[in-house]
Amino acid sequence: MAMILMVFFAAFGSVFFLGLNSKLLRDDKILAGFCVSWMITLTQFATVWAIANAALSTPIYLLVSGFGGSIGLTCSQYFYKWYDKRFPK
Q1: pLDDT of 55 strictly over 90
Q2: How far is Cα 6 from Cα 49, in angstroms, rounded to an integer?
Q3: pLDDT for 50
Q4: Which residue has the higher pLDDT, 36 or 55?
Q5: Nearby residues of 28 by Cβ (< 8 Å), 6 or more positions away
Q6: Distance (Å, rounded) from C-alpha 15 to C-alpha 68?
Q7: Of 82, 54, 81, nearest to 68 (Cα)?
Q8: Where are the alpha helices (DSSP H) in 27-87?
């Protein structure tokens, strides 16, 4: 169960930060984009580590990773809406 959660949160974080960074850089929020880029690096490392160590079957891995990424991207959209109102350019 711990590895399933690791895969889920690694996929969630990776896609969350990729989506968020896309919005930040589109709107020229360069310093925030710089900081989020480090989070992308960390979550992608966690994803690679989880793939190498999870010992999950391919269908389970794809299902868990797919849900994590989909939920992560959706959350990044809502987070950016909040962030943009709170920290306008």
Answers
A1: no
A2: 9
A3: 86
A4: 36
A5: 89
A6: 8
A7: 54
A8: 30-53, 58-86
Take residue 66 and report the two structure tokens written for it.
């797919």
| C-beta neighbour count of 41 within 10 angstroms | 12
pLDDT at 25 over 80: yes
Question: What pLDDT shows up at residue 35?
Answer: 95
- The tokens for 60 are 């389970």
3-state secondary structure of 57: coil
pLDDT score of 73 more than 80 = yes
Quote the pTM value.
0.90
* CA 84 to each of CA 26, 32, 36, 65: distance values in angstroms, whole numbers, following the listed order: 12, 11, 15, 28
**Tokens (6 digits) for 82:** 């909040």
Instruction: Read off the amino acid at residue 54.
Output: A
